[in-house]
Structures are given as C-alpha cells and as structure tokens.
Amino acid sequence: MTRYFFQIRRGGVTITDEEGDEFDSIDEAHANAIRAVRELLAARIKNGAMILDEHMEIRDETGALVVAVSFHDVIKRHLGR
Amino acid sequence: MTAPPQSSMQNKLLALLPATDYGQIAPDLDLIPLPKGTLLGRAGKPIKYAYFLASGLGSIVVTTPEGHSAEAGIFGFDGYVPTSVVTGLDVSIHDVGMQLDGEGYRISYDAFRGWMDSNRSFSRVMIRAAEAFAVQLAFTALSNAVHDVNERLARWLLMCHDRVSGNEIALTHDFISLMLAVRRPSVTTSLHVLEGNGFIRSERGSIMIRNRPALEEFARDAYGRPEEEYRRLMKDLF
Fold first, then answer.
1. Which chain B positions have a beta carbon within 8 Å of A35's beta carbon?
2. Complex ipTM, two decimals?
3. Residue of chain A minimizing CA distance to B186
4. C-alpha distances in Å from residue A57, one per residue of A24, A32, B23
C-alpha cells in the first residue's frame, strides 16, 4: 500500500491534502481522483457555478507529482453527441 | 466509579431528573473512560449497556448489506445511546461508536429497563430524549437531500461544537467524509471555503471554530431546528 495525497490546484491557489489515502496501485489512486473530481464537478454544476480549469494532483509521500487530473478533461469525457 | 452529586452531573438528561429520582438511579451508573473508537453498540448484537456521555462525541453509523456507510446522527452529553433501549429492544440496530475521546456513565440494560418501568421521571426524560434524537435524524435526512456540501459541513461542525468544550475539535477529513457521505476531496474543498470566509481554521487532525455566529449564518436553515426542538422537548418536564 502506498499513501497518495490529492491536492487541488486552481490558478495560483493550491488546496493541500495533509492526510492522504492508501492505495494498492497508482491506477487505483488515479481512479479515486477521477471519482472525487466528478463529485466536485457535480456539486458545482448543481449550484450553477463555473467550472474553472482546475486540476487534482496526485502526489506521493515525497511530494512528487505522480499524475494530474484536469477538471475540464473529466467533463469532456462525459460529453456525448 | 459511581455517579457524582447531581449538581456536578455533566450529562444533561441525568442533570434534568428531579433530585430524588436521580438519587435512586445514580448507584446504577458507572463512570468509565470512552476513548475514540470505543463501540457502544454494534448492529445486530445484544445491548448490554446504555451510555450517558459526560464528555466526548459519538455517532450512529448505518451500513448497507454491501458495506456502504453513512453517519445518521451524533450525540454527546445531550443524550444517551443506544436509544433502542427505550423500546425494550435488546439488540442494537446500528453501529454506535465514539468519535472523540470522552467519558460516560454506563448503566446495564436490565437496570435501565427496570427504571423505565418503575421511575416515571426517568422514563419521561428517556422517551423525550429518544424523540429529540429522532428529530435530529430526520433533519439530517432532510439536510442530506436539500443542502450542498458546504452547508452540510457547516451544520455538522456546529453540531459538534455544541457538544464539545472549547473551540477546537479533533476531526480528520477522512472522518468528516464518512460523516457527510462525500469523498475526502469534497471535505477538503469545503473546509477551504469555510476557512477562506474566516469561520474556521483547519489544521491537520483538528478544526478550530473561529467565528460561530458567521458559521451559523452561513449554514442558514441547515442548522437550528433540531436544537430548538431539543430545548422544547426538555423544557418544563417537572
């Protein structure tokens, strides 16, 4: 199990995650980040708020960036024709 | 350790009893430490004791057969658990556990039932408290349906603040996420909003309430009604 931290970056503002969560693999951590972003997006859309170009960054215990999930990319994946 | 004189009894329900009734029941109460994580009831298991908290905070957690969990209600020195004992049911329906370190008075199930049958004052207070708790659960269901995460978090922090001494509450984001049934980043983001408004300060493993009136204003109608009903239910009982 590895502990990953999920911080949100919005322009110059970073909302840090001091607790983190443990996952068996980076794929699981990534999937978790996408689910979390969907939940945040859903709440904002419901409230009629703008979806800015935010990212959820997954960092390891050394603070190194492992992967970043773009809020806009997550929304795009849900757009149909 | 047995119960103290009623004047220094911290549990509101026991403090509310007429002195003679309290005097009768007190010998059946044992003060015990209830550290965070202590289970006071387990779903489907027999109820051996009821607990009247003197300090600390606990919650009722409901779990589906597939393992999805959410908090249904919280309690502190304002109540007793499990409230099912009031009905004479000796099996706990939900998981009941301590979420912040505290102390409480423990009474055996049989003694509790005995006083329910023989002491009218005791049974009146216990029934009222069960109703007050049901009101809280109903408003939590309402809040989960109509309020956004920021408002629900504000409501929940106010409810915790009502039940602890001081302005610092030892809560992790992970725990709040279980309580509000949202993912942890939603908690972190909402705490950031409340902190940005100057209502709270969020540090690792602890939340400091900085401006309670402003937090109440922010929570709007998400907070207040169950607290009002509690006061009404506990007024003019004797």
1. 183
2. 0.92
3. A40
4. 18, 12, 60
Using CA atoms of A15, A19, A25, A30 in order, give the dihedral in degrees to the nearest 10.
Answer: -20
Put simply, whether B185 touches A (Cβ < 8 Å) is: yes
Residue B3 confidence (pLDDT): 82
What are the tens digits of pLDDT across the range B180-229? 999 999 999 999 999 999 999 998 889 999 999 999 999 999 999 999 99
**Domain map of chain A by residue range?**
2-76
Write down the pLDDT at residue B1.
62
Candidates B149, B182, B184, B194: best to mutate against A (most CBs of A within 10 A) is: B184
Based on the domain organization, do B153 and B139 belong to the same domain?
no
Cα B43 to its chain centre, rounded Å, is 17
CA distance linking residue A65 with residue B35, whole number of Å: 37
Could you report the per-residue pLDDT of B59-95, keeping only the tens digit for each? 999 989 998 888 899 999 999 999 999 999 899 989 9
User: Which residues from chain A sit within 8 angstroms of residue B148, using beta carbons?
Assistant: 43, 46-47
Q: Are the C-beta atoms of residues B3 and B26 closer than 8 Å to each other?
A: yes
In a domain, B236, yes or no: no
Contact B184 A21 (CB under 8 A): yes
Chain B contacts of A39, Cβ < 8 Å?
182-183, 185-186
In sequence order, which residues have a C-beta less than 8 Å from that of residue B25 and are 6 or more positions away? B14, B17, B107, B115, B119, B122
Summarised one tens digit per residue, pLDDT across range B124-164 is 999 999 999 999 999 999 999 999 999 999 999 999 999 99
Q: How many CB atoms lie within 10 A of CB B232?
A: 12
Interface test with B, best of A10, A13, A21 (most B CBs within 10 A): A21
Residues B216, B104 share a domain: no
Number of domains in chain B: 2
Query: Given an 8 Å threshold on Cβ–Cβ distance, is B185 in contact with A17?
Result: yes
Contact: A39, B186; criterion CB under 8 Å: yes
